[in-house]
Write a structure and sequence with these properties.
Blueprint: H1 2-22, E1 23-26, E2 30-36, E3 39-44, E4 48-51, E5 59-64, E6 68-71, E7 75-78, E8 84-95, H2 98-104, H3 108-127, H4 145-164, E9 166-177, H5 180-252, H6 254-269, H7 290-296
Helix pairs in contact: 3-4, 5-6
Amino acid sequence: MKKAYICILVAIAISVSVLYLSVFTVDDRDWVVITQFGKPVKTITEPGPYFKLPGFLQTINKFDKRINMFETQPIQLLLGDKNPVVISCYAAWQIQDPLLFFQVVGNKNNAEIKLSDMVTSSLGIVLGDYNIKNVINIDKADIKIDEIEKAIKTESSVRSEKKYGIKIIKTGIQRVAYPDIVMKSVYERMKSERRKEADKLLAEGQEEASNIHFEANKISQSINAKAKKNALIIKGEGDKAVMKIYSRAYSEDAEFFNLIRSLDMYKKVMADNTTLILSTESEIFKYLNLGRGEEKK
């Protein structure tokens, strides 16, 4: 009886161990490839509990479903205009075919080494269609960085999916530098472009200033013309009023009018420190020649 009890316990223990080694859970973040003696026998793409042969008979190989990132090493490449640049890229990638990935690549480190070579190769091919102005320029219309990045992604992704079971989600240029041989020409070109832009702005400013000056002169001349016209009108009306006053004064008392006019003339002619040498018979002395006036009386 005791032996039977021990056998039952041993059987239960073996069953539990076999069950423990056979049941596993797949996370929704993972792909799983089951291998038997190193050969893949099953690929699992959905999360949940699964069974396999226990122990060393079958092995679980997990691969991350999530997007991974890596950066290439800086490398010197030639542009289409034969100017060299030192450039590095980044890439976001994701496993699309876990079985192909397992068979060809095996793990994340190998994947990034192979993808780095592939992206760098695609970068060299794509840069051959562009020149230095498309990489660095003060004119945004000439910069083609976005276009270059899309071309690298297209070139690399098709090859990586077919060859490694990897989809490249995005590629981009991480940094760009120039060898010393290129730096001087780049700086000179930038200075020339800046100078050209400054000259353009200066010319536009001078043209605008000239237009403003012209318009101001035009408005000033118009205002002056109107003011002169109004002044002449006012002066004419004043002269007309004066003539009416003179006419009325003359008609009322001609002798008094002549006296007043003569006094005005004396005031104008005989200013301070003024010396006149005239004949006493002159009209100017008509009202000043008192002696004659008395003799007439």
